[in-house]
Amino acid sequence: MRRFARTPSILTDRGAGTIEDFVAYGPRMSLEARGFIGKPSTRMFLINGVSDTQVPIDDLYLLQRTGSPKEAWSIRRVAI
């Protein structure tokens, strides 16, 4: 079940008026494109829902595989 649609909330959050504006803005949000992935970092505890509609679980997996050691908690199901 989707609690809220991803597209309108991201457009509002980023100040983009259209999908095209958001796509053009996208690379500025990428930690990978900006060169942060794989660099040493402070200790992190990552929490992400497997079915999260705002932040894909693949983002957590990418962070786990790169850079300094991290602890992570992935939430499989949320009780309603």
Which key features would you list for this structure?
two-stranded parallel ribbon, 80 residues
Task: Give a brief description.
The chain has helices at residues 6-14, 19-25, 57-65; strands spanning 44-49, 70-75. It is an alpha+beta fold and 80 residues long. It has a two-stranded parallel ribbon with strand order 1-2.
What features would you describe in this structure?
By secondary structure, the protein is an alpha+beta fold. The chain has 2 domains: 30 residues, no CATH class; 46 residues, no CATH class. Helix content is 31%, strand content 15%. The chain has 3 helices and 2 strands. The protein has a two-stranded parallel ribbon.
Describe the SSE topology.
Elements: H1 6-14, H2 19-25, E1 44-49, H3 57-65, E2 70-75
Parallel strand pairs: 1-2
Q: Indicate the proportion of strand residues.
A: 15-25%
Low-confidence stretches: none
Please provide the count of β strands.
Answer: 2
Task: Provide the spatial order of strands within the biggest beta sheet.
Answer: 1-2
Report the radius of gyration as a whole number of Å.
Answer: 15 Å
How far is it from the N-terminal to the C-terminal residue, by CA? 10 Å
Quaternary structure: single chain
Number of helices: 3
